[in-house]
Every structure is written in structure tokens, then in C-alpha cells.
Amino acid sequence: ESPQTNDIKTQFHPNSGIPPKVHSFEEFGHRKVSETPVPLDFSPWRPFQSRLDFEVSEFALQAGLSDNLTTDLIDLLQRCCDQREKFTIKSSSEMKQLWDLASVKSLKFEKSSIAVEYQGKPKDFDVHYRPLWDWVEEIATNQDLSSEIVWDAQRLWKFDGSKWEKFIEEPWSASAWWNIQGKLPADSKPFFIILYADKNKLSSFGTQKGYPVIARCANLPSSIRNGTGIGGGRLVGWLPIVDEDPAETGKPGFVNFKNAVWHESVRKIIESLIPHSQTGCALVCGDDVTRSLFPIPFILSADYEEQCVMALIRGLGGLCPCPKCFVSQEDLSDLSVQFQLRTPVHTLEIFQQVKKCTTQVEKENILKEFSLRPHMNVFLDLNHVDPYFACSFDELHFDSSGLWGDHLFAQFKRHLDALPGRAGSVTVDSRYAQMPRWSKLNHFNSVTGTSFNDGSKHRDISKIFIFAAHDVFDQKSAAFQLLRALRSYLNMTMYGDLVIQTDSTIESGRSAVNNFSGMILVRNEELAKKSWNFIKMHYHVHLFDDIMAKGVSQVFSTKPNEKMHGPLRKIYHHRTNFKNIADQILRIQHQFMVATVIRAGLDTLDEYYSAPIDQEESDLQYFSKHFHLGSKCQPIALQEVENAHKSDTSFSRFRIELGKFMTGFLRVGKEIRFTPNDIITPFQYLNINYQSMETWEMETDQLRCNPNFYNQPRFDFVMFQKSEGNFSYAQLLYMFDCSVDEKHYPVACIQHYKVVLNRSAVDRRLGLVRIRKDFSKDAPKFIPIDSVVRGIVAPVAGSASEISVTERFIFDVVDGDMFLRIKKLYPGFTDTQ
């Protein structure tokens, strides 16, 4: 049978014994709905006496109530209890005891002491940890997760109408899983682990710090893996922090000592995995199938400094500062060159050479050449683990807060400061303030004089800057050349962020990396004053290799783990006495984990007992899979609409033009005419559902057409389809329902915009797509709302006021779908020329 366009082909790893399958796009895009699971425990709230007892305790825990406030809450509940479900807890101390009894529902933390020698003397440190194999068992045997866990590698292709194109999303669709599974016994399965570690401030002044280690299961889909539920991130370790000694800080021996403490501490977390990584371990999984599992930490997610510790290299002070390869300090800015990769085999060979040396100087010279530290990497004790390969690119630290935040943005600020007066900064800030509001985009009133620590804000600032500064710098200046580099940077990062990667997007992404490198290395005297030889520049060499090997960039992102620092800080500030904080924080954090386990059991119980409920029809007047209208206004006569908009030429002859549009739209063989008293019903909200070119799933844009939305006028822009394959752009001016022959039709009055094809030198050199108001006679004034494809963001092009703006830009980097659409519709337009 011949494949159909968009069919998906899946090839499973030979060890799986599963034959290849071809699914229609619709079948592949929807997970099979599993049968409602039978609860393993019909009283999951135990040891609490009742569900109500647990839920009150859960509330007190999440609210961070003190003992006194908890006691007050219990007193109130005891007084108002209506006996339908008895609340039995009498005091906060009883509640604490119940949490202690419930602690067995999840893995407890253990505490061990390690000793690491420094200057001939052993130094002792406490390590808090959950044995990692116990966590593996908990995930693998969980009945609720069993239908979600993926055990076998897959290769995926999509048929584009003429050929099959390979694509990558989750880790099991990338190359490393396939290769590693091929090295395991045929009847075994890999259990892949993502580990994250980062030292972080707990107190406001940074005097108190925490060092959490978080584990995630790569066999689970990202929607579960990156969450905080039972299959999400798990705190598995709390590492000791070596106190800084002013007399020793910075000395090679002391730095080596701190690295050795880290690895000996992590050994406690992972040592339960070591024997099973060698031989596998038979386990009855949550689906009652016995599997031989090999636990394999194959992604290390961290910032650069932490990766240097994980890889046990010397970092920025070393001759080869990259945790993944042997690039030299002098070659960090050239992204077109691939360097020899680090491997465990090579490291072990180096340490064999070091063992044969008779003097400390000889040992140091060998290790120094490869930027290695004189301690064996603990991850090399595990089979099938390569800590250098496992170190991964991270958008948050290497791009948003790194290459952009620390370097590109800083350079742009310097160039703005060099302009006469503050005209450049004022213009840029005003355009940030004028940027149209969008639910998926941070809004800024100014940026040039403000410092930002939030990576997501840096990301959005980087996207907007080129649109805000396109005409601020002279085209012959170094600043303008840097703007051109920024366009290449945006292309590189947008390709890198895609949540589905095809052969073609990876090829385009690699090309974007080289283009950015070329733009930065352009011979410019001003640009040359800034050194681009830094590690966060170089790491982009590894971006698409990591994607091909491990899955899309969100797989190894630190963002889900960074979010877990906030709750730990709250526990520190509200639930500890600021002494011996590790024990207190981990006790409360464990209670949160127990609450998560119990809540998951309650959800399963509720699902089991709840009968299917028929979906009621929406009370919205217009609803379809594609769109629905909301914020309904009072019905109004067409004459009143014209009277209310007398000064707006867009509404001149509104009634007559609407009749002409409906005549052409309906094509019923007669002219449609409306009377001045005919009634329409306006709407001010439009919810558009569309299939994303990035995710291949349904995404939603929330659009407004409101003269007073939070005290500001907001009339959003849209892409709409004029005819098959013919797309255009418009600003929504008025949305309404009109009726013809007792049938209702949702319509929008618009201001049409055309893409400017005769492009200026600035637009071509900066990769900008400009649209202009269309005042021609044949310009559409109305469109059926069903023709709207999706919303767009259209910032002002120039310095004209909002009222008289005739030209705007298409903000193509708002998301991956818009980025890919514009690339397809206008090839080459968003590349620098």
C-alpha cells in the first residue's frame, strides 16, 4: 500500500522484536487512551484516618502554615465539621506524626559521611541522598506510569508526498538510545536517567546555599518527565558545600579538593546503580512484565561551571576548556570547526600514563595538556556511561543568559551609549514599550538601562531587539554589523529550540550556526575589540550533535530543574530555623513528595469511580475545532455601527460593503443587501486553534479586538487564507455575527496589509519581513473568521505614532510555527543578505 502524505513510519530497535509500523498522521498524533486503571490502594490517604484529614494536611503543607496557624486551622475545622466526613486530627503535632508515618510511601533520604583527604588530612562531609536504584524501581514498578514508559529505541520518518524524512523528538527517537540498546543483551532494556545539579543561593544575601541533585526518567514523555508529579523531577541528593578558606581559595590543590568532594558525594547517590549497570537487574514492572533493566545516566543537565565539575576538567583556566571536546582557548569563536571529542577510553589511557609517572611535575604536565583533574570521575564506574557525551548544551545558560545576556546585549548597550545624546536608547526603549501584547511574550517598558536575571526575559529581549533597533545604527557601523549577526543568532536559536527536528531543520540549523560564526568573525575593526573566544560561544558547535544524539533541546534543558529551586528557597525561608538546614529542608521536601504520591493515588481512585460524563454543548454562539468567539457584546444595528465610527474611514459604507462581501462569499445567485436596522452581534475575543508546523499538534492563539482592553486599545493582527495556498495579513478592527436567511455567519472587518516585496537594503541585510497597509480598491475589508489561520505579532516599522502607522514588521520569531511558516512562504527573506 502506497504511503499517504504525512504518514508516519516507525522502526523499532531490533532487540524489541516489534515490526515496523506505518500510521496515519492523525493516529500518530494522538496517544492511545488507556483503560481506566484499577487502583492498587482503595485508601491511598492512609495513614491519615480519612481523605479529609489528608487534604487538610496537604493544604497546610502547601500553604507553609506554622504550627500555631495549623492549630488554628484545625480548631476551626473541628468546630464547623458537618459530620459528612469526619475530620479527626486534633493538633499540629498529630499532623506531623501522620506525615512521619506516611513517609514510607516515598523514598526517604539517607545520610552518610564521606572523607576526602586535603593536605594529608581527611576532611569529613555529610551527604543526604536517596539511593538512585530505589528511585528507578519506584518509577519502573509504578502502575500509573507503566503505559507511558517507553522501553525501546525508535526511528521515525514522515512522508512528505515524495520521500520519507527522518525526524527526532523524544530521547528514544535519537541515535544514542539506539546505539546503547544495541550494546545491551537482547532481552534487556535501558533505563535512561537525566541528572541535574546546581549550587544555589537560599538566603537573600547568598550566605546560605543549597546543592540539590535532581533526577528525571528519560523513558517518560516530556509532558510527564518535566513536570513535578510522580513521574517528574525527583530530588535525589543534597551535596555538601566546601567552606571557602581565604588562604586556600583559588589554589589548584584546593580546587581539586572541592571537585573530589563533589564526586565522592555523588558516588553515594549513584553507587546503588553500579552493579546493575554492569549486569542488569530483573524487575517486575508496573505492567506486570519482568524486564532486565540497565540504569544509565546518559544526560547531565547543568550550567557550564557545573559541567566542568561533572566532567572533572579544569574549566576556563585550562588549555582545553570544553567538557565535550579538546578545543583550545584560541579557537572558541570559530563554530565551523569540529574538534576531537573527549571519551572515557581516552581519559583512562591518560590516567594509566599518569600512574607510570614518578614525579608530581610529570603527572601534572600530562593532566594539564588535556585539562583533566587528578581524581577519577565517578561516572566512569558505571557501564555504558560517557560523562563527556552526557554533558549537554543548555539554551538557558549558554544562549539567553550567556551569549545574548552577557555578550551580545552588553555590546548593543555599549553601542547605544556611544550614540550622541540618548536618542538611540530612547528609540529602542519606546519600541519595546510599543511592542504589541502577546500571551507568549514578555512585555517591557524599557530595557537599555535595566538589568535582568530571568533567562526567559533575556530570550524575549533578544527576539525583539532587532525590530526595535533596525534603523538606529548607521549601516556602515560595527553596531549594524552586530545587528546582522543578531539576525543569524535568532535563526540559530529558533532552529535549536524546535520541539520536532527533521533532517532539513537540523541541516538548516547547522547552516545557521556557521552563518552566525561568519557574521561575528567579519573583519571589522570595532567588532575586533570584543573577544568572542569564550566557552558559551563555542558550545553551539555541539548543539545539533546533542539534538541528533539525545532528542530535541528541551530534553536536556535545565529550565524544568531551575524551577525547583524556588520551592526549596520557600521551605528555607518559611519552614526552617536557619540552622542545620539540610535536615529540615529535606524533611519538608519529603513530605511534599509523599503528598504527591497520595494525591496521585486519589486521582486514580477518583478516575476509577467517576462515570463518563457526556460533554455538553458549549454555550458559546460560535464554536468549531478551528475557532470560537467570546466577550459577546450587546447586539447593535448596522446604522449605529456606522454612527459610532464616523471618524474612521475603515467603517465608511460599512453596511453596503458588508452586503457586497456576503454576496461574493455566499454566491447564492442573488445580491445580499442589509438595511440600516439589521442587527449584528459584536465580539471582542477570538480563540484560534491551528495545527502548528513546529509541534504538529493543535496550538491556540488568543486574539483581542477591543477598544478598551485593560484601559488600552488592543486590535490584534492575523494571518488569513485568501484562497488555497494564498495567505495574507490583516489587523482585526471589528468582529461580529451577521445573519442571512436566518443563518449566522462570523465575520471580521479588517485593515488589510500586504508584504513589501520590493525590499529596502536594511530589510534585506537584517532579514526583516515588512508589511504595508493596503489602500487599493480591491483590498478586502471583510473576511470570514473561519479564514483566519493564526494570530501574528506585528511591531511598528518606524517612528510613526500608533494611529498613523502604515508599515509594520512580521515578528517571525514569536514561536517555532511562525518562524517555519515565514521561512516557507518567503524563502530567504529572514536570512541576512
Molecular structure report:
InterPro entries: Plavaka. Pfam families: Plavaka. It is globular and about 95 Å long. The chain folds into 5 domains: 34-105 and 587-597, no CATH class; 110-312 and 380-391, no CATH class; 314-374, no CATH class; 395-555, no CATH class; 627-825, no CATH class. It is built from 28 helices and 26 strands. The protein starts with 7 loop residues before the first strand and ends in an 8-residue tail after the last helix. The strands form 4 sheets. Strands 15, 16, 17, 18, 19, 20, 21, 22, 23, 24, 25 and 26 form a 12-stranded antiparallel beta sheet that branches. Strands 3-4-11-10-7-13-12 form a 7-stranded mixed beta sheet, with helices on both faces. A 5-stranded antiparallel beta sheet has the order 2-1-5-6-14. It is of the alpha+beta class.
Calculate Rg over CA atoms: 30 Å
Total of DSSP H or I helical runs spanning 4+ residues = 28
Count the E strands.
26
| Average pLDDT | 90
Number of domains: 5
Terminus-to-terminus distance: 45 Å
Helix content: 25-40%
- What is the overall shape? globular
Structural class: alpha+beta
Parts with pLDDT < 50 across at least 5 consecutive residues: 30-34, 611-620
Give the DSSP E fraction (strand runs of 2 or more residues).
15-25%
What characterizes the major β-sheet?
12 strands, antiparallel
InterPro entries: Plavaka
Based on the model shown, name its key terms.
26 strands; 5 domains; 20% strand; 7-stranded mixed beta sheet; 12-stranded antiparallel beta sheet; alpha+beta
